[in-house]
Amino acid sequence: MAALRPAGDYDESYIRDMSFLRRPWMNWFTWGVVLIVLLLPFLEIWGLISSANPSYARYTWWMNILNRIAYTIVALQGLNILTGLTGQISLGQAAFMLVGGYISALAMTYWGLPIILTIPLAAVGTGAIGLLFGLPSLRVKGFYLAMATLAAQFIIPWLSRNLWKDYLGGTNGSIVAPVPTIFGYEFSGSTNMFIISFITLVITSVLFNNMIRTKLGRAFVSVRDNDLAAELLGVNLFSYKLKAFYLAAAFAGIAGALRAHTERGIGTEFNYTLDISVLFLGMLVIGGMGTNLGPFLGAIFVILLDEGAIILGETIAHAFPDQAGALQTSFRPIVFGVTLIIFLIFEPRGLAHRWYLFKAAWRLRPFAR
Amino acid sequence: MENINNPILSVEGVELSFGANRVLKNISFDVQPGEIRAIIGPNGAGKTSMLNCMSGFYRPQKGQIMFAGQDVTKTPPHNIASLGMARTFQNIALYTGLSTLDNLMAARHIHMKQRSLASMLYWGTAQREEIEHREFVEEIIDFLEIEQIRKAVVGALPYGLRKRVELGRALALEPDLLLLDEPMAGMNAEEKEDMARFVLDIHERRGVTVVLIEHDMGLVMDISDRIVVIDFGEKIADGSPEEIKNDEKVIAAYLGQEE
After folding, report:
1. What 3-state class would DSSP assign to B60?
2. How many angstroms from the chain centroid is the CA of residue B21?
3. Which of A23, A165, A174, A359 has the largest count of CB atoms under 10 Å?
4. d(Cα B141, Cα B99) in Å, to the nearest integer?
5. Is B81 within 8 Å of A207 when comparing Cβ atoms?
């Protein structure tokens, strides 16, 4: 996007030209929003809102959604590195979340590590597993690679049920993820966990944005846009594809750890299926592949849409009691499917692209619509 | 052409075939440091195949191509760029989703030392290095007069400009040897002159050796020091523009033979 800027807005140094928040007000605005969102869970912690309050139910509902959005964005950022930037398709993101959740839960249960350490451990460990499933990417591309990564989605959940049954839960399909504590404070619910999820999200977002403006990100995009030229320009294709797989899995591992401690359990029982992996791809398409805003817009839009569909589905179920069962089970996937199709037809570059267009039009007002 | 025994690149007995289709038949020639060497020939003669072999993209069945003390035909493609060779493509092969600036910065890949982790952490090493290379890239942008499209996504640029950006990307590698595959194809006279001026400037000011495939004979005769002529995969002539102009085999290849 050729940046369209207000008159007189110049970059006076390369540092400023390369920064994402180029102007002081952008800095203030972004970090202000971050701070305000971060303060939301403290409403309860500081007792400003409690179960006696009439809006408490709505508050917890929103905190639950926000927490889910936060760790979903982390998983999407991982997928964005792999699919959006490097152009390698992956259908195993949910399975990698499962791995991350297990690593974090086990490390906390048996080694007693605090969450500050189990999350990085989950990232590193899941990344290593991701490398393994990234190996076929040297030989196969596109559709065939999707099939190869699909293997992860089947092998990992199967292994979690059949391997080391005492530790991974065996046929129970789940183990308990302990309540994380930092300095004796227990992060026991969605509201508390949101603090950890959100701080993690801020860190991964900073890492992601740094990546796309430096050597690593450009190498990823060059593999996506023209792998033959990239190789002749000195990019080692295999090494960078594996790096992308590693990072994608590592981000999924972080997301998995966050989700496991929120839901207080990890395992195949907790729905880490192919549906979820496909849903992630759908979210990324809706948000905008290969953009830094894509994961945010995709996750927020789809999760809110999904919640809206639940509410709407129940309302309709009340109106048509005969079809209540069918409506409750199938209304959500239908809404998601239709939305995805609409996006693929009318806005294949996602909400992020829409946002850039809107920004450009805003700057050109009143000469553009 | 003085130190004739010390070529920057030498092609020795290269044979390339796809199945039964023999594309290059026992081709040998060399490129002297500091010259503009043109490869010409009728359509389908094997010029681009020759260039693809030289840049390590195709692997010839026989023969060797020595560059910077290494046999290019046995070097992994991603290591060839750091030997000091860069190329452009006949059908532009830019990174269409990146801006002009990022395309050029992407070519600095081999000169950047930052590790992937440093890239993600940015502040400190990576930032310093980015700025350092940005300054280098800005010089090229200046030189090629593409300042106004610095931030434009290259996929949306017109053809002539994309060709120029691709030349810039090759230059950003800081090559000793530059392979240009039809840099002026499909351009109008003015664009061609611009491009020729850039090629000559690169050659003279930066001291880059240039190997050039081009169809515009007038232009080739004007700017090149020596010319290789390939027809049906065989080298039929090699020499100065004057010699090539009067070579009977070349005339026959281009104009047909009298019965």
Report:
1. coil
2. 25
3. A174
4. 12
5. no
Of the candidates B97, B108, B149, the beta carbon closest to that of A225 is on B97
Residue of B nearest to A3 (CA): B151
Please give the structure tokens belonging to residue B236.
């039929």
Q: B39 and chain A: CB distance < 8 Å anywhere?
A: no
Query: CA A104, CA A196: separation in Å to the nearest integer?
Result: 14
State the DSSP code for A289.
T
* Helix, coil or strand: residue B246: coil
Q: Are A125 and A113 in contact (CB under 8 A)?
A: no
| Spatial distance between the Cα atoms of B80 and A323, rounded to a whole number of angstroms | 66
Cβ contact B95–A228 (<8 Å): no
Token pair of A242, please? 């594996």
Which of A210, A229, A232 shows the shortest C-beta gap to B122?
A210
The residues near A326 (Cβ < 8 Å, ≥ 6 apart) are none
How many residues does the structure list for chain B?
259
Over its C-alpha atoms, chain B yields an Rg (Å, rounded) of 19
Q: What is the amino acid identity at position A176?
A: V
pLDDT one-digit tens code per residue, B141-182: 999 999 899 889 998 899 889 999 999 999 999 999 999 999
ipTM of the complex, rounded to two decimals: 0.89
pLDDT in tens, B180-211: 999 888 888 888 888 999 999 999 988 899 99
pLDDT at site B4: 54
Spatial CB neighbours of A80, under 8 Å, sequence gap ≥ 6? A208, A284, A289, A290, A291, A294, A295
DSSP 3-state of B154: helix
Domain with CATH 3.40.50.300 in chain B: 1-84+176-259
Asked whether the beta carbons of B133 and B148 are under 8 A apart, the reply is no
Q: Quote the CA–CA distance of B148 and B78 in Å, as a whole number.
A: 31
Identify from A12, A227, A233, A237 which residue to disrupt to test chain B contact, counting B C-beta atoms within 10 A and taking the largest count.
A233
Parallel, antiparallel or unpaired: strands A181-182 and A185-186:
antiparallel
DSSP labels for B218-234? HHHHHH-SEEEEEETTE
What is the separation of C-alpha A76 from the centre of its chain, rounded to a whole number of angstroms?
A: 3
**Displacement of CA A289 from its chain's centroid (Å):** 12
- In the structure, what pLDDT confidence band is assigned to residue B259 with cuts at 50, 70 and 90? low
Short-list A255, A234, A235, A273, CA closest to A86: A235
pLDDT at A2 exceeding the cut of 80: no
Name the residue among A355, A237, A219 with its Cα closest to residue A296.
Answer: A355
Four-point Cα dihedral B117, B122, B127, B129, nearest 10: 10
CA separation (Å) from A226 to A79, A204, A211, B9, B116? 20, 27, 19, 27, 21
d(Cα A288, Cα A80) in Å, to the nearest integer? Answer: 9
pLDDT in tens, A140-183: 888 888 888 888 899 998 888 888 888 888 777 788 888 888 88
Give the residue carrying structure tokens 């639950």. A64
What's the rounded Cα separation, in Å, for the pair B83 and B54? 12
Average pLDDT of the residues of chain A:
88
| Residue A325, helix vs strand vs coil | helix
**Distance in angstroms (rounded) separating the CA atoms of residues B199 and B167:** 9
Residue appearing with tokens 């094997």: B46
Identify the CATH homologous superfamily for domain B1-84+176-259. P-loop containing nucleotide triphosphate hydrolases (3.40.50.300)
